[in-house]
Amino acid sequence: MYLNKTKYYLLALARDRSAKVFETITSEKCEIRMLQKERIRCVRRIMIWTITVLCILHSSSAYCRKVDQIGFGYGQEFKHNTDISQYEIFYQHPIFYEKNIGSAWKIKSLLEFGAALIDESGSDNSPTGRFSIMPQMLLAPSDWINLIVGLGAGFMAGETELTDQNLGGAFLLSSKVGLQIFLGSRWAVGYTFYHQSNAGIYNHNQGLNINQLAITYQL
Fold first, then answer.
1. Fewer C-beta neighbours within 10 Å, C or N terminus of the chain?
2. 10 Å Cβ neighbour count for 168?
3. pLDDT greater at residue 86 or residue 219
């Protein structure tokens, strides 16, 4: 009789543990599905924004006489994890807004499409991809210098939980403040302070703060 009770107890314990394992697996599957759905929604938003932006670019091309630019930038996180680096390529298209202020100053506008790799040295994770769209305003005191201010949005593809720095999730908001100096008729160099966060829509929102140097070429 004692053996029967022991056997019954062990069977009940095994069933209880199996139920807990099943609940854990089910919960993890639900979290994975939620993350997948969130990423799909984010990609859909980016696609809608991209189509809208392309329509704006098409309609603005008749009003804009400025040339497009392509560029490459390299920057490094300086506030939290200094092992994080960013390698960015970008394409800039002028849009229709332009205004003269007095005899020297001029306000111009452009739209920047950016793609970057966020790499953490010493980490086993692969670099994280970042794609963004950013309208920018340029304040030009002369033909060879621009002051830059931009606000945009985008998404990341890859790991968002870095060492000592959790970026929260795929969706991001970004900003740039900087300076661009032309070295001739086509080439220019510049510095930008790049900030990225998710505005608190995820549980973690440590963000990135990057000093970035860039070189651009007018097409």
1. N
2. 20
3. 86
**Residue 118 vs residues 2, 74, 75, 199: alpha-carbon distances, Å:** 63, 10, 10, 19
Q: Report the C-alpha dihedral over residues 178, 183, 185, 189, rounded to 10 degrees.
A: -30
d(CA 206, CA 199): 10
3-state secondary structure of 185: coil
CA-based nearest residue to 90, from 129, 47, 134, 50: 134
- Contact between 180 and 145 (Cβ < 8 Å): yes
- More confidently predicted of 41 and 108: 108
For residue 80, the SS3 value is coil
Q: Is 204 left (phi over 0), alpha (psi -120 to 50) or beta?
A: beta
